[in-house]
Amino acid sequence: MESHSEFRGRYLEAGARIGLVAPSSPFDREDFERGAAKLARHYAVDWEPGMLERAGYLAGSDARRLSELQRAIDDPKLDAIIAARGGYGVTRLLSRLDLSALVARPKLLVGFSDITALHAGWARRRVLSIHGGMVAALGRSDELGYERYRAALEGRFADRFTDLIAYAPGRAEGVLLGGNLTVLTALIGTPHWPGFSGAVLFFEDIGERPYRVDRMLTTWLDAGAFEGVRGVVLGAFVQGDPGSDGVAVADVLAERLAELGVPVASGVPAGHVEDNAELPFGQPVVLDANRGELLIMPRRNA
């Protein structure tokens, strides 16, 4: 990824066409249909019945998930792609997925967790995406949550996050990128690694004990994967309780990331939490760890 290149793409307008896909794990059908119905109030929503298939911990075979996702990427009529659920499965598809259509016609991607592997592909091609909830979760949200989600789809995000906890002082500017720590770590050393030079890097995770977070961050450090990163901002790290040694995930994050010599702050309410804040990947931000703030800079459709 070239740090100096502006990210391309457009946020949505009323009536935009959205393709719903299931490239990862199966999901609750009722939640999904409620979420799809909410989106259909304001947008034209397309989805294929095959996405309801199940194959163990996957939403159908690799062939089904790949063909569905590829069709959505290639479809010139779609303005955005939103995942039904995360879980696991996208990395199984990456070596056969063709993202070249995004270069000629960028389209918005929305999702998080396992969808981080797709965010990395969008980042490699310098195309905007949104780290945010997925369709099944949208089906469980209240109206206030849905309206905030719709605002993000149309490019209206929270302008700042405050009361962050500084792990390393300083101020940094860059494009916001990142996602799930475990998924990103799995991409290191593969052709799918996006590189994060010039970025303010965001991490979140679930179910990773402190020593496993330590191991992943050590891999990043040893691999030089933080090269060119201007700052790090952390979201929710949940279900990673300390062991008998008493070391918490926050302790590990503070110690390992302090080695970078860039601003580091924690406390963005995004990730595997009930009220998962939407974040604009590829959009400029300012991280001021001294003030405990992440400022989202405005961006026009381009």
Question: Could you describe the 3D structure shown?
Answer:
This protein is α/β, with parallel strands linked by helices and 302 residues long. It folds into 2 domains: 17-153, Murein tetrapeptidase LD-carboxypeptidase, N-terminal domain (Rossmann fold, 3-Layer(aba) Sandwich), CATH 3.40.50.10740; 160-296, LD-carboxypeptidase A C-terminal domain-like (Glucose Oxidase, domain 1). The chain has 9 helices and 14 strands. It has helices at 29-40, 62-74, 101-104, 116-124, 135-140, 143-153, 181-187, 210-223, 249-257; strands at residues 17-21, 44-46, 80-83, 108-111, 129-131, 160-161, 165-168, 171-180, 199-206, 231-238, 264-266, 279-281, 284-288, 293-296. Strand 9, helix 8 (210-223) and strand 10 form a beta-alpha-beta unit. Helix 8 packs parallel to helix 9 (249-257). The chain is globular, with a radius of gyration of 18 Å. The protein starts with 16 loop residues before the first strand and ends in a 6-residue tail after the last strand. The model has no long low-confidence stretch (mean pLDDT 96).
